[in-house]
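Long-time lurker. I teach an intro course on protein structure, and each term I like to show students one example going from raw sequence to a predicted 3D structure in token notation. This year I'd like something fresh instead of my usual example. Would anyone be willing to generate the tokens for the chain below so I can use it in lecture? Attribution to the forum is fine with me.
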Amino acid sequence: MVTRDYLTLVEALGIPRGSIVALVGGGGKTSTLFRMVRESSRDGCRVLATTTARMKMEEIVEVRDVLLWDERDASGETWKSHRSHTAESGWIDKVLEGEGAEPRIPAAFLGRQVMRDKLIGLPTDYLGDLLSRLTWDMVYVEADGSRGRSVKGHRIGEPIIPLCATHCVVVVGADGLDCAVNEETCHRPEIVQEVLGLDWGEHLTPGRVAQLLGDRRGLLPKIPGDMEVSVYVNKTPLGGEHEPSRNFAEEVLANCGSRIHRVAVGDNLQGGLVETFSLESTS
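-- Reply from a regular --
Happy to contribute to a lecture. Here you go:
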């Protein structure tokens, strides 16, 4: 039986303190990551965010500390903060300062190095050992790239999920639940076509996107089986018409219920509580 509730995003996805959370998919992973970072920070958690891919420098402007990892030092004592090393960071520090605005998220973002306007993420091989030596209350990892598209077809080797993660959040954009399969709307549309047996330009539906998630060639089998998996449908403002998002949530729970027990529906731009769909336990 499917039940509904209205909660914060972290609560809706059932993520407890002490978790390492990997975010994958499309439709606003970065904004979702920082939304969850804010919520956990407000709850009094010491929060660390990082990526196994790349992130634009302007996307982390609100974070209090942006650190560069030193692989020779697992304790973190020699990691460099761009906010405290202005002479070394130059223009990067100006970007991070947001034209004089104070950072609003009391959290840290950890990267390996800066390349042009992007922060390069940490290798997954080091992440588990590194995090086991640190004392953060919550860790959020952006573990996938989608080039701004709301739906993604994953090839072999994707996403880049650290094995130390305890939870995986699949992000989907609500606008991707009714869009044509092409390069403008999907990342790796040829994979979406192959998995779903669609022609180029044929439209997706909530049921088809749920199938893309659960198919043996889809995303879900690529997520390690010991991780708790939940889904977040972004770009769905509360109070509006969002029947496709609700239909998608019900399709996911009906067809992927052995792995996915929670689907949250909301909008990162609007903020506020999210609508939550979950499978009621029969035990």
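Some talking points for your students: The chain has two domains: 2-46+141-279, 54-120. Helices lie at 9-12, 29-42, 86-89, 91-97, 124-132, 189-196, 206-214, 243-255.
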